[in-house]
């Protein structure tokens, strides 16, 4: 059943821009909300084996999305117990069709880590038959900055994160169908 409601992620690199695309089997409004509301993000954000013990969202231009991912999977060896903090600063919000923010590595206080690359993320949410296509254009300051995050395993992390989103949306859909 899941194969009818989701698709694999596709990715391409053009210079210093990474483009990711995937179809999720859920209405556009719900998918947009899943990317912009803390109560949703806590349920799926991050790769497998990572939880989100902290997440705040101030969804407005200039507002901040501050979060912590923590590795809770002992099988991930040296990553177990590690925390990874992030900070998004919103630039544009056109609910439910478009979201633009700059994504930074940060610390628990929300101070930006200048030694790691930032990302200008532009997400579009398109209604398609059976769901919503999400397209992310992740622009970096240089090809080297993009290579740095790719070498950190970013593509695998995003793939796992979006798999978790697909599972979360499917579970919500099934719960809603069961409730009716």
Your description of this structure?
With 180 residues, this protein is of the alpha+beta class. It has one domain (2-154): START domain (Alpha-D-Glucose-1,6-Bisphosphate, Chain A, domain 4), CATH 3.30.530.20. It has helices spanning 28-36, 38-44, 143-151, 154-179; strands at 10-14, 17-24, 50-57, 64-71, 83-94, 98-106, 119-128, 131-139. Strands 1-2-8-7-6-5-4-3 form an 8-stranded antiparallel sheet. Strand 3 and strand 4 form a beta hairpin. Helix 1 packs across helix 2. The longest helix is centred in the last third of the chain and has 26 residues, at 154-179.
Concise synopsis of the structure shown:
With 180 residues, this protein is an alpha+beta fold.
Mass-distribution shape:
globular
The total tally of domains equals 1
Number of helical runs?
Answer: 4
CATH architectural designation: 2-Layer Sandwich
What is the CATH H-level superfamily? START domain
Q: What about the largest sheet?
A: 8 strands, antiparallel
What is the level 1 CATH name? Alpha Beta
The strands making up the biggest β-sheet line up spatially as 1-2-8-7-6-5-4-3
The overall pLDDT average reads 94
Secondary structure category: alpha+beta
Distance between the termini: 19 Å
Radius of gyration: 16 Å
Strand content: 35-45%
N-to-C order of helices and strands: EEHHEEEEEEHH
Helical content stands at 25-40%
How many strand units?
8
Here the CATH topology equals: Alpha-D-Glucose-1,6-Bisphosphate, Chain A, domain 4
Unreliable stretches (pLDDT < 50, length at least 5) are: 1-5
């Amino acid at each position: 059943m899941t194969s009818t409601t989701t698709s694999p992620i596709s990715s391409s690199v053009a210079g210093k821009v990474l483009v990711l695309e995937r179809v999720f089997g859920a209405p556009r409004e719900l998918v947009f909300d899943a990317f912009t509301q803390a109560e949703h993000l806590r349920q799926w954000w991050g790769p497998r084996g990572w939880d989100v013990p902290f997440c705040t969202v101030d969804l407005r231009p200039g507002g901040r999305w501050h979060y912590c991912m923590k590795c809770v999977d002992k099988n991930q060896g040296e990553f177990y117990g590690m925390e990874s903090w992030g900070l998004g600063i919103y630039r544009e919000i056109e609910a439910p069709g478009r979201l633009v923010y700059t994504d930074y590595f940060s610390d628990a206080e929300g101070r930006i880590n200048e030694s790691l690359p930032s990302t200008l993320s532009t997400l579009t949410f398109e209604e398609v038959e059976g769901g919503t296509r999400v397209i992310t254009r992740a622009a970096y300051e240089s090809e080297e900055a993009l290579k740095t995050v790719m070498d950190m395993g970013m593509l695998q992390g995003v793939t796992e994160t979006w798999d978790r989103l697909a599972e979360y949306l499917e579970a919500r859909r099934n719960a809603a169908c069961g409730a009716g």
